[in-house]
Amino acid sequence: MYTKSDLRQFKRLGIKPEQVDKQLEHFANGFDHVALKETAATGNGIKQLPEQEIDNLVSRFREKQPSLSMIKMVPASGSATRMFKVLNTFMTTYTGSDAEYLQLRRDKGPGTPLLFFEKIREYPFFRRLREVLYKDHLDIDKLSRKNQFIEILEYLLTEKGLNYNATPKGLIDFHLYQEHVRTAFEEHLVEGALYCNNGKTANLHFTVSREHASRFKALLKSVRGRYEKETGTRFNVSFSIQRRDTDTVSLARDNQLLRDKNQTIVFRPGGHGALIHNLNDLKEEIIFIKNIDNVTPDRNKDVTVRYKQALGGLLLETREKVFHYARLLDRRAVTPALLDEVEAFIREHLGHRPPALSPDATRKERVKCLKRVLDRPLRVCGMVRNEGEPGGGPFWVTASDGGERLMIVESAQVNMKDKEQKGIFLASTHFNPVDIVCSTRDYKGRRYNLLDFIDERQGFITAKSFEGEEIRVQELPGLWNGAMANWNTLFVEVPLATFTPVKTVFDLLRVEHMNVVSSM
Hints:
ten-stranded mixed β-sheet
């Protein structure tokens, strides 16, 4: 089936032919849909923290913080192209005719091109855009008055100027301060110093694309001194690249392997689920995970930091109980009362409803079952009230063993043709903002192999295009979906103020991203 050239390509990428065989099987047979049992809701899978408990958890975290081995991981390989989708469409279609301009005036509103140009001076990247135009003897104010919008966009989005179309979102100017502008990457540095440090050092890890790794490193080198001085914290920052051996094949319209004009198989990145390998390589025992575009200026960081510390405190509190029960179950003298206590803890605090054992189950069988549930990675996930954002949410799902567990589920994992399943998904009251803190060691201090806890049946197949042709592509189980499907999971309600993503360029004008600073 594979040519000698194919096999050489596999070897070069570190991919085994059996991996491609498996991917082709998934294309042929599809992936399993998640069996939704019910939505997770406040009091039924989502914990709501009273203020006093938040204070206690924050204190617990701060007390342990100096001795913790921890790191903040930020997936940062995403391009900013989608962020500028509306402007790119405008740049390729607008002709500048009087009729089109009049239509622009009529259509002006949130998320429209004309609004962008009217508010352009308020954007944090305005200064740099004006500078690159000036180098070519162009004045942005004159261009604006003459409605020369395309020229402005070319200097913002293409190689003529800032080239934001080919820039990772982490390197886009996000926030304007009195004396400088911060990118999303820089905001993560400052935020990390506020909760992911041991009193002296903050550890941060960014997953970046191969082609942009040097740009991240160059930016870090240029700003490290400033932020270490401002925060009084030393930054230990590392980077990793999505592994090539996690790339996946695609199918052309004829359902054959997609190949380029040289008949070489086209591999594509396997989605953020591939980052479970990067996560698995981190040696720290406590790992915070947060998306690159979910940051705020300094004036809004307090609530984010408070809830990060509370989630960390809850993780430590829960982990201590897990370890305590794991040690007790390792002893010979295990009483029925203890087994009942452990099972109640699992049901009430670990987001897991194990399948009922036979009434004739022996003590040894019960111990084995409970130990199997306890002995896995642990994560605490913040959840915000659903305000219509696209993406996944928290659910109770039926596991393969007949039990039920808490999981983060995306719409692509649900059989939307099934009215009952669709109804459960759409009834979700909360949304996943990717606000996660993890514990990746067992009670003996041994690191888990996180790859052992992936549910390989929860991948995705979607439609894309390649050189104008429609193709089918495959993504690995999502990092916080199928890749963590077999972790123990706690969901905690966090305020919407902790979720401030920048999905489009217009989000930078939302009040939570604005500083009262002139862009002149």
